[in-house]
Structures are given as C-alpha cells and as structure tokens.
Design goal:
14% of the residues lie in helices and 31% in strands. By secondary structure, the protein is of the alpha+beta class. The strands form five sheets. Strands 1, 2, 3, 4, 5, 9, 15, 18, 19, 20 and 22 form an eleven-stranded mixed beta sheet that branches. It is globular, with a radius of gyration of 32 Å.
Length: 354
C-alpha cells in the first residue's frame, strides 16, 4: 500500500472516532466533580431576638398580646390619705416627681396593662407627667387634670388619654372603705382600662422609634461605687430611702423612714433606682403648678449594690428620655423593675449614696 493511501485511511478513522465521541457525549448529563470530604456541610444561622422581652424591664415572658404594643401610664397620688396605694408593686416602672405644694405624684407604667391589678388612688393629670408618658408613646390615664394638662391635650391631639372625670368614667370606681375624702377614692384595673382602650379604638401598636426606650446589659453590671443605701429629698415632707438587699438584689423603698407598702401588704422594691436632677420652678408664674425643665442634666444610676453618675436628655413633649453613662454612651441598665425620680436639682446636695 502506498504511503499516501495509508495516511488517508488513518485520517478517516480519526475523524470517525471524533464524530462518534461527540454524538455519544450529547446523550449524557454533564457530571460535576465533587471532592470527597468527611466534614458535614456548614450551616449559617442568624439567631433571632426573642419576641417576649419586655422593653421596660428587659425581662423575658411578655405575653404575645403585649408585644409591639404601647405602654399605659396611670396617675397615682402620694398624699398621706392615699397611702397605702393599691397595686404599688405591680408596675414595670414607677415615675415620681413634684406635683404641687411639695407633694409628689407617681406614674405607674405598664407594658402589659391587661395584667394590672387594682390601681390607685387615681388623681388628676399634670403636664410634666404627660410629657414623660408621651416620650414613651404611652396611653395616659388620669382622673381630671390641671388647666396646663388640658391645654396640652387640646394642643396635641396625638396624645391619647383616658379621663375618669369625663367620658371615660366606666373604667373607674370608688373605694370608700377608708373613710377619706372623695378625691382619694378613685381606682381602676387593667381589665377596665383594656376594655376602655378598645371601646375608644385608641391606637395600640407602638409607634416606630419608641420600641426600645431603654438599653439593657446582657450580663448583670456592677457599677463604679458601692451603694447599700441612697437617700433623696423631693421636699421636707417627701423623703425617700432605698435600701439594698443583697439576697434578692433589690432596693426597698422607705418613705420618710417608713416602709412604703402597697395596700396588699408588700413593700415596693426595684432593681434600678434612677435619679434625674432637673430644675424645678413655677409653671407660667403660677405658684400652684410645678414646672419640670425637661431639657438635660445630671443624675445617678443605682443598681446591684453600686452606683454611677449619669447624664440625661429629653427636650420636646414627644422626645424620649435618654440616659447616658459617664463616657456619653447609652446607659446599660440591669434587667428588672425601675423607679425613676425627677428630683429638684436644688436638692442634689441632700442626696447621699453610701
């Protein structure tokens, strides 16, 4: 065979093999090489924040019906004839400050108002307390009010409130068993307030930006200075002492040296004592009404048998009260209930922490 003919035959065979390979490959699924490994595949998961955390205490266990909802702030008086108050130990936060004539009033603030027991005696609104509640996007509950408070309600219709002296009387009753003047007898309950909120179709979902008014530490904090007891003065007749109990980690409230107990017999105790020094004066030159100047200032944070100095800011009616540590960072609270006192800055020298 000639060499040229041999080359032609070899070339034809190579072409045949190539074409056959292509047609054969078209009928097969392409295989992907996977290297052998003895390790299980890695799964990436993101831990979701618990939904049952109470934004006022940092504690878990908040009912599903109260999650993402507005808090409710209830005015409770602190006149001697109003003591012992009903439900004093029940709120998540108690706010206290001067109302008039050296007398203090309180706001009982609840994240889950439906669980609140008998609360009272309830008294009239004061504009300072309304502004604190508005800074939490809270529904405000009162029995009557000063002209300054009603002016604020009229000027700002976005402040939802329940007034026992007017159309909302169905949410209140009177307890006359103590034999005191009528103004010290009004009370309400979480059940009645929940029903009235629904009847009035008040907004119950928390407004964006107000979901987390406080920041809570992941682990319990020990602060810079020891504090087994703190004494503070609102006025000569209204002096508080909070004494630390190392067994349960709570500060127990004493009013003018006497245990401050609720009508049910339990003494009020909290995890956090927050002192807000603020300038206090007369409202629009009216000596009967007190004005808290809620711009900014200094204060103290007391918890876990210790204390530290803090600063605070608020501002406008709907601005949230913000707390800061000595370095200007947002204050990290220990979890649990809190007492917040708006104490006249002029009395700061009378406060002792030891």
């Amino acid at each position: 065979m000639k060499k040229s003919n041999l080359i032609k035959i070899i070339t034809l065979l190579m072409c045949f093999v190539l074409v056959a390979g292509v047609f054969s490959a078209c009928g097969k699924k392409e295989e992907t090489y996977v290297p052998e490994t003895t390790e299980a595949p890695t799964e990436t998961t993101t831990e979701a924040a618990p939904q049952d955390i109470n934004p006022l205490t940092g504690l878990s266990g908040l009912s599903a019906s109260a999650q993402g909802k507005r808090p409710v702030a209830v005015v409770v008086e602190n006149h001697p004839d109003a003591r012992p108050q009903w439900g004093l130990c029940s709120p998540d936060i108690v706010v206290e400050g001067l109302a008039e004539g050296g007398i203090t009033r309180m706001l009982f603030i609840y994240q889950d108002i439906a669980t609140a027991p008998k609360i009272g005696p309830n008294r009239s609104a004061r504009h300072n307390y309304v502004e604190v509640a508005a800074g939490l996007d809270a529904i405000y509950v009162h029995f009557g009010g000063s002209y300054a408070a009603y002016n604020l309600f009229s000027k700002d219709s976005s402040i939802d409130h329940i007034d026992g002296s007017k159309a909302d009387g169905s949410a209140f009753k009177r307890d006359r068993s103590r034999g005191v003047a009528t103004e010290h007898t009004a009370y309400t309950t979480g059940e009645w307030l929940s029903a009235r909120i629904a009847e009035k179709s008040l907004r119950t979902d928390i407004k964006q930006g107000y979901e987390k008014p406080f920041s809570f530490a992941k682990d319990k904090r020990t602060l810079a200075n020891p504090c087994k007891e703190i004494q503070l003065t609102f006025s000569p007749s209204y002096k508080h002492t909070f004494k630390y109990n190392a067994e349960d980690g709570l500060y127990y409230n004493y009013m003018n040296a006497n245990p401050m107990k609720e009508a049910e017999g339990n003494q009020m105790a909290v995890s956090n004592v927050i002192v807000i020094y603020c300038n206090v004066g007369a409202y629009s030159n009216d000596p009967k009404l007190v004005e808290w100047h809620l711009s900014e200032g200094k204060g103290l944070y007391v918890s876990n048998g210790t204390y530290e100095e803090i600063t605070w800011k608020k501002g406008g009616t709907h601005d949230m009260l913000k707390l800061f540590d000595a370095n200007g960072n947002e204050l990290q609270l220990n979890t649990g209930k809190s007492w917040i006192g708006f104490v006249p800055a002029a009395n700061s020298a009378n406060i002792t922490a030891e």
